[in-house]
Amino acid sequence: MDDYEMMRTGRWLHAVTPRIGEALHRAEELCFRLNQLPPSRREEREAIIRQLLGHVGKEITLHSPFHCDFGEQISVGDHFVGNFNLTILDEAPVTIGNHVFIGPDVGIYTVRHALLTDQRNAGIMQSLPVTIHDNVWIGGHATLLPGVTIGQGSVIGAGSVVTHDIPPQVVAAGNPCRVLRPITEADRVQEVD
Predict the structure, then answer these.
(1) Residue 45 belongs to domain spanning
(2) What 3-state class would DSSP assign to 108?
(3) Residue positions annotated with a catalytic role
(4) 17 pLDDT band (50/70/90 cuts)?
(5) How many structural domains are present in the chain?
(6) Contact (Cβ atoms closer than 8 angstroms) between residue 110 and residue 71
(7) What does the alpha-carbon distance between residue 135 and residue 27 come to, in Å, rounded to a whole number?
(8) 36, CA 20 to 30 Å: which among 86, 96, 151, 168?
(9) In angstroms, how far is CA 91 from the centroid of its own chain?
(10) How many angstroms separate the first and last alpha carbons of the chain?
(11) Over the range 15-37, which residues count as b (16 or more CB within 10 Å of their CB) and which as e?
């Protein structure tokens, strides 16, 4: 098992290695190319997105700028919308379901660093996966921390810091993010033009 594979296991490790550095450089180059293309060049943008990410479903919208660490560990389902300035640090897998909407300036982080300065300066880190189930909406400026899961159909309020799992079909918000209430049929919009 090489350093790159070990990084995905959730163990604490020294993460400053040539193999990891090469993978980071690859993603940085692809993100740069993607972010330089105008929105009108959709086919070129989609080709780069499909080269960058590990899995991409159908009908994806990813606004620039977009940033990620590796890309290969990001899986995005069908009908995904990632708004401006989405950042995904994918040292561990990030799995995003179908019909997920992510607002602007959202950060999804799978990596955490050692607290003691000598260990942190030596590059000791751990990565934990993030999972976002189908039909989730994440409001702008939200932050998802390592190891969290967002349950199917939930809404994360703008500016929230998600530090633990959020169950399905709820509205959750705050710092730290907490469940405010369930989503029910009473939330249905009645007057639609």
Answers:
(1) 3-182
(2) strand
(3) 113
(4) confident
(5) 1
(6) no
(7) 27
(8) 96
(9) 11
(10) 57
(11) bebeebeebbeebeebbeebeee
